Each structure stands twice: as structure tokens, then as C-alpha cells.
Amino acid sequence: MFIVHENEKQYRFGDSGSKYLMKGPRMNFAIVQFQPGLDFKAHLHHVMEENFYILEGTVDIVVDGKVYTLSPGELIHIEPEEVHYVINNGPDVVKMISTLAPYKEVDKVDVENYTYQGK
Q1: What is the extent of the structural domain holding 88?
Q2: What pLDDT, in 10s, does the model give residues 38-84?
Q3: Does residue 6 sit in helix, strand or coil?
Q4: What's the structural domain count of the chain?
Q5: Which residue, 63, 56, 119, 112, is CA-closest to 86?
Q6: Which residues pair with 50 in a beta bridge?
Q7: In the sheet where 39-45 sits, what is the strand order?
Q8: Domain containing 40 — which CATH number?
Q9: Do the domain assignments include residue 66?
């Protein structure tokens, strides 16, 4: 058992990116924040499934080439092998929860030159 407060951790890129509150042993749990215009490189996971639950703002999440615009209160579930890309096309900061399970230390595969059709 442990307790961690969000303020004890830092976002990966200063005021944006993932802030992992827990990494393993069975899952990852993170708060993710994106400033307007920022994105996260397209990638996939071979083993882990990923969920995003939107807390604040509106975000575009592209899964296998299809754009989904999500708002606070919505959750998107992404299966292993589904290529996904996240971009904040809105004017406000996006804040969301990310979970990844089952835990695997190295399971992220970047997808180079990713293209998709807009909305």
C-alpha cells in the first residue's frame, strides 16, 4: 500500500506530458496535461491497453487513423496494437488520466511519419 500526491511528481516536459503517479508492478497510472497546440507522438503498445479519461479541456485522439474529439467525462479505451496519437487542437489546457495495463516496462513503439485524415 502507498499514497502519493500529484504535487510530488512532475510532468515530463515541464507543464505538459505525462506525470506518472504509479509505474507498475501491474499497471501505470498517470495524469497527462497538454498545452494548446501540443501533441504526443503516434505509437502503439504490443501488450498494454491504454485508457484516457478526460478531466479538463477538449482533446483529439486519433486511433488507427480515425479522429475522436473527447470532452470532460469521456473515456476512450485503446487496445494493444492500435496506433494512437493525441493532440490538443483546442484553446484550453487538456488534463486527463491515463492508465496502462498489464504493466510491461518497455512496450511503447513509436510510429514514424504517421498520417491520418482530419475530422
Answers
A1: 31-104
A2: 999 999 999 999 999 999 999 999 999 999 999 999 999 999 999 99
A3: helix
A4: 1
A5: 63
A6: 78, 100
A7: 66-70, 59-63, 84-87, 39-45, 108-110
A8: 2.60.120.10
A9: yes
